[in-house]
Amino acid sequence: MDDVVFERDGREEDGGSEEELEATESRADVKVQKVKKELEAVKKEKQEYLDGWQRAKADYVNALKRFEEEKVRIREQGVMKAVKALLPAYDALERAKEAGGEMPEGFAGIAKQLEGAFTGLGLTSFGSVGEPFDPAKHEALGTDPTDDAKKDDAVSAVLEQGYEIHGAVIRPARVRVFQHET
User: Nearest-CA neighbor of 118 among 73, 161, 74?
Assistant: First the structure.
């Protein structure tokens, strides 16, 4: 108790009455209760602000993710649109190569450049004789009879290659399909 100091306000010597002391204590208790209520209100308000800030931060992070996903999706759509526009020219060059005729050197170079660009964009071709017919990837333009039950619903001829980018079909392969006849 050495560090507790009692200050005198001058009324102690008068020997203040017990009622005055109780009234002073009552006023002090009222003030303490008022300060406690204010403290609780401030704590509640602080928590509301903190919760609001945390929600706003989560919304911001989610918006950033959505924007990034949207940017990737738009880029992929642009790539697909460009590839779809260039595929007919590439097909024409490939048909000219397959025809066996003499193709000017410039056209062969253009075909190689297109092929390299398509590969760089992730374009892959599909559709080969013997693979199982998949309606999600193949467009059947006709059927060919077969006696071999193992070949039923397999591709019998590829009329035009199909293309996909990262699993998304750009153009289905146009094929003929074996049909087992019993």
Answer: 161
